């Protein structure tokens, strides 16, 4: 392989790398230019003993210089890497800095030195030029083709007598792929004693027994990945070329060159000449720069014709398999050729110990340019051939990418539909990659297959309306007069319809698909059945059948057992966790949500396909337990999930959770604003969203102090499940209609199978009704039942929402608090039990009281009547009542005594007889 290259492009510049351009003065030793002769009779070239010059603009790479110094402390240091990685420049810089442990003998090797006699003649001359005293009996090689073993023995013996270390640098050892030379080197190095320090520079691993040197700890290696420029080094290279103001381009250059020294250097030179250096760096293409000339001359042109053809044909691939390369070229020896290229560090890298390999990006780009120039029109045919091989070996995403690059969209779509692979657009580790590959597909392609694939792509982007339009078009194609639609196409159509139809028809379609899916695709394409089960569960959820949906999501999750279905399992568990939280099964919800998040971290669920429902479920669990900080943390994470803002169901739940968080902080106005946005993403609105929105909105209206508005909201939404009845009963109680409230509660009491949340809230409302009826014993019994039901799940929020009467009752009956330390935070506990008189933490005043309201509250605390307050403050009675209603709303209470008590807890009142300013903690 010729070495007449722009070698000094690596590491910062310099002259082309040939013996003729080296400095003629040696670094040390005798400086004469007398031409000793080798065994062929030709003079030994003095320039080959000179250390290469190092340009001023070279980037000093301290980390590598230190490693070279460490290596030279031992017998052997090996520097290997592809052309232009900066091997020679690194070693020359190290020598010229004087970091070597002793004198340095440098020898640059060329292909003409392959004969063992010629090689050893040069080595002996290099040593003698650096004052290594070799006795006359060492001698000289008598023949170019072989070296007497006794000469090597005498040389090794002479080297054992060295009084200080001597470094011998052999640069370009890949030029000598001769086993006799390697075995001689091994012999001398093994027997020369500790003072000889050998530094080998090569593009390939030498034929030395490196495994033995590694096992004995006698070798230090600096390889291609070590020679790659770091970001800091690349930044210094740009500065050295006067491009310091373009340091923001470093990342783009590193991404394109992968730290290849010559590529960075040549690109910097191009940037110096460019009108817009930053734009050049962003759009840098190897085919438009000196990099192409370098790689073609230094690498490609040096290869045999068969190797050049294989490299060009396979350059269309992101990664290359020997069998695929054979399929593209019609050859049978691709494995051997690729192995040789890998060993030679010719920009071909193995992938994780597999048969696959990859080409350095710039090299691949140059190869493709060469292919298009020398074989015009061949690339699309190669890509179609590659697509077929990849698809037949189960690599669908890569196959579709090749077909897309060839512009053969019909083949890609027909393949996905006819082989029932369309479900992989919606789930599996390559789902996002597939959707991205198909994103450039024209919209005017004929036939049902492109329409079905386009519909699946739209669904993957949460565009159900777009999906529906594509499916309508596919259905037209499939049912044209005389058409004979394939079963696979009809099955794909029905599956996709499952996710785009209204809830009830979708649920029916999901059941109808069961037998057909199980019979045709269960083993070969498990994602089809997983998607069918998931779609059915979603339809049941949207049709306001939460209990059936919960079972369906659990059933769907159980059926997801492989990598291809992990994405579906992740979504099933997230939705299931949300439903479990709504039922009050908080521990189950937490378990399912955590598992959903764990699955989301797997490679089989692409980041763009991860759902925020797991975090939403954990936020709901934390809310029900009164852990507002945790609820806010998980809510914020859900809002940053990829499906937030795209998936209508997730967006509805986000809006409802935001409203519930606002309510938990007493911000009823913000809660009403948030709930107004809930359900809007669903078009047409689903029964599920309408009922959920009505429940949260009614709760916000109650917090606002408007039970009439809450009743109107609930009645307008129509009859619902137990949660709807509970909310209506609560609103009736707040409106003073206790009789109708008790009737609603009685109807629920007779209903079997209620969830934990429903049972707890039912008992609390019944207890509240008993309190209003002054039936304390019944109220205590019902409160005890509520506490007992809530205890396993630590469900605190229903008791906080119920109002102050709960805590009054607990104060009056300390026996009720026994065993319920979980109900309050630590400060309210004594020795693990609920402290008598303990109440929830004082509510935060989220809307500041006005000065006039604080004055009214102060008068009320002094036990003045409404009329007396009006007279003292020169106000009308109606104005005082208005202020009191506003105070009740802001303090989330319903009575004057509760307002005074709450104000004292929040230190909103002046001490008796005090003149201090009334302050609000809100």
TrEMBL record:
GO terms for biological process: regulation of DNA-templated transcription. Gene3D superfamilies: P-loop containing nucleotide triphosphate hydrolases (3.40.50.300), Tetratricopeptide repeat domain (1.25.40.10), Winged helix-like DNA-binding domain superfamily/Winged helix DNA-binding domain (1.10.10.10). GO terms for molecular function: DNA binding. Residues 842-907 form the HTH luxR-type domain. It comes from Streptomyces gilvosporeus. The keyword Transcription applies. This is HTH luxR-type domain-containing protein. The lineage of its organism: Bacteria, Bacillati, Actinomycetota, Actinomycetes, Kitasatosporales. InterPro entries: AAA+_ATPase (IPR003593), AAA_16 (IPR041664), P-loop_NTPase (IPR027417), Sig_transdc_resp-reg_C-effctor (IPR016032), TPR-like_helical_dom_sf (IPR011990), TPR_MalT (IPR041617), Tscrpt_reg_LuxR_C (IPR000792), WH-like_DNA-bd_sf (IPR036388). Residues 1-42 are annotated as: Disordered. Keywords: DNA-binding, Transcription, Transcription regulation. CDD domains: LuxR_C_like (cd06170).
